[in-house]
């Protein structure tokens, strides 16, 4: 006897799905197959049994079973393309191991990134429409809107309905993924900003992500001078220090990851690094780490080979170049092809307020983005040079 | 039976010192990240202290290439285990290093 159950959005609620599979096993339904895309799970009648389930996502579709897991009683109960359900019939308290969910974490953050891009597009699109229509609404001149009757309005309404539907789906999935991430990949967050005793000082450090090595050196100098970093405010710009003398030596590392990687953070923590800041972005994750060390000892580093350091630096350089260079080029094209020639032709006396704004603000925007690109490349070339393992 | 494909051999041999020591540390038993770092430090009498970023990057690459598999062991720590393909790559690299050593030693003995 078989039974097929439809379970929509199961992959956004992995822990609930695992508990549901366990309850089905206890009711005497053994999982024999599943269709991830159509959210269908097939069971056959069997003896009721206790089982622990773990759902895994593996882009390589290999679903390996390490010896240690096999010896602990795990087996692959069912697999379909990138998804697999691992099961263990031992009593839960005797199960010492489990699968690692890096693949699932990576898949979830990729989906979240796609939704954020979608919402960014919606916001940009609405802003552009507002920019076009706002002057009309605000002007004193009478505005007449004529609605031309046409059977094609159905296309507009259908598109609007679909867009609302997709947006609701996006909000639902983002919220579900956020909750899921908190449950599955419990990340230890850096200590909260506390009002401890002692003399404090605050320093602003904007734009450090374009030269992270300089931030590391600056933080090490602060520690050396007796200013211990207490916290970094959300946004990563405001640094709070507390006076701590005698000064202790700390090595700082600033890490950039394309996406949140709880596994990497756990790894660094095990190796004795303390996380003092982690940015809240879905992608472009920045984190700041430190490790205490004694005078005379070599400075601890996370990346000990030159190749590794330059690869890590290239990730930053590539990301910001891809992000900022097109903006610089678009602004430059617009400015030098249209705005500037037009302003020169009209003469400064006859320029409107908006034209003045464009003529003056565009160069600042271009300089800001272009200098950021230059700074990340300079950072990359600095990281390529052999490094001395002592403090600067 | 060969587990390591031609692609893996070309990619990993010759191997970096870090990659070699990581595979070597996992040859006998699975270890977690910090266990790998401490084992290599002990094995090289403190000469080599691997950075956690370097080790993490290398084990992630090796896991992707199926030289290693990972699971959550005691205390939910990520634990790495060598696969037959990983063991074969380690054996091939060890043979290459042995040949290097033998030739270098013979050359040294033969030189005036």
Automatic annotation (TrEMBL), chain A:
Keywords: Membrane, Transmembrane, Transmembrane helix. The chain crosses the membrane at residues 115-138, 150-175, 319-340, 360-381. This is DUF2812 domain-containing protein.
UniProtKB/TrEMBL annotation, chain B:
Gene3D superfamilies: Winged helix-like DNA-binding domain superfamily/Winged helix DNA-binding domain. Pfam families: PadR. InterPro entries: Metal_resp_DNA-bind_regulator, Tscrpt_reg_PadR_N, WH-like_DNA-bd_sf, WH_DNA-bd_sf. Residues 22-90 form the Transcription regulator PadR N-terminal domain. It comes from the Bacteria. This is PadR family transcriptional regulator. It comes from Alkalicoccus urumqiensis (Bacillus urumqiensis).
